[in-house]
């Protein structure tokens, strides 16, 4: 859901579809390794009050950049699998150069094992996803004509989508820097050298990143709201 920001000077979380907000809350819980209680969320209606709640649930510190630490973890994991001079791996380094297409799935899997979490980096070609998605929609429509054919079509489309997702080799981001930002946003605590120390100044930014990514908000409208 995209809010009409021209007529909404202050972002009120109650203006969004509850399912959309719930999805973002799950992402925040996963990123910060916390758990919201229903009683805690009862009076939370603004972005700022949500950030205060997250801050209160995470141990604080004032130093360290999670994105930078994510970059270092990535660089170390890549070098462990494919020894390369560290100075050659920079934030602007293209992932396609580090992860050759012919063995990209295996290389990414090895790095994920080293990191201890999934980067969710690979995806199938868009036309493959759309083809199976259209087949699924068409199969649903065929139930009114032939349930047998419709069922077969659904099985093929669902299996195709699963296989496409499993064996997709397309990169969702282009550079190491982009990937570091992505995993820092989605696996905040796991990217830090010491998960018990969290920079107080980062929490609001990470929560804002999750909101803008999932609810299609302009970041400026979440400042001090």
Could you explain the architecture of this structure?
The structure is a single chain. This protein folds into three domains: 77 residues, no CATH class; 63 residues, no CATH class; 42 residues. The protein is flat and about 60 Å long. The chain has ten helices and two strands. 20% of the residues are buried. A two-stranded antiparallel sheet has the order 1-2. With 225 residues, it is mainly alpha-helical.
Shape: flat
Query: What is the mean predicted local confidence, pLDDT?
Result: 82
Instruction: Please trace the helix and strand order, writing H or E for each element.
Output: HHHHHHEHHEHH
End-to-end Cα distance, whole Å, is 19 Å
Helix content, binned percent: 55-70%
Number of domains: 3
Provide the fold topology:
Blueprint lengths: L17 H15 L5 H4 L5 H11 L8 H16 L13 H4 L5 H12 L6 E2 L2 H16 L5 H21 L2 E2 L4 H11 L13 H16 L10
Antiparallel strand pairs: 1-2
Using brief descriptors, characterize the structure shown.
transmembrane; 2 strands; ACP-like_sf; flat; 3 domains; mainly alpha; membrane; 10 helices; two-stranded antiparallel sheet; 2% strand; transmembrane helix
């Amino acid at each position: 859901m995209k809010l009409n920001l021209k007529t909404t000077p202050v972002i009120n979380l109650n203006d969004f579809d509850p399912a959309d907000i719930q999805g973002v809350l799950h992402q925040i819980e996963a990123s910060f390794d916390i758990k919201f209680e229903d009683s805690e969320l009862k009076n939370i209606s603004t972005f700022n009050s949500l950030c205060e709640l997250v801050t209160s649930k995470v141990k604080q510190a004032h130093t360290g950049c999670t994105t930078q630490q994510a970059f270092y973890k990535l660089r170390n994991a890549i070098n462990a699998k494919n020894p390369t001079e560290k100075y050659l791996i920079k934030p602007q380094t293209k992932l396609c150069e580090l992860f050759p297409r012919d063995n990209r799935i295996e290389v990414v899997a090895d790095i994920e094992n080293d990191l201890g979490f999934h980067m969710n980096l690979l995806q199938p070609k868009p036309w493959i996803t759309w083809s199976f998605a259209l087949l699924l929609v068409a199969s649903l429509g065929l139930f009114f004509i032939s349930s047998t054919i419709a069922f077969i079509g659904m099985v093929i489309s669902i299996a195709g989508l699963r296989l496409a997702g499993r064996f997709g080799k397309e990169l969702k981001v282009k550079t190491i820097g982009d990937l570091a930002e992505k995993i820092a946003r989605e696996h905040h605590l796991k990217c830090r050298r010491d998960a018990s120390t969290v920079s107080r100044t980062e929490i609001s930014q990470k929560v804002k990143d999750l909101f803008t990514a999932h609810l299609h908000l302009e970041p400026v409208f979440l400042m001090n709201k």
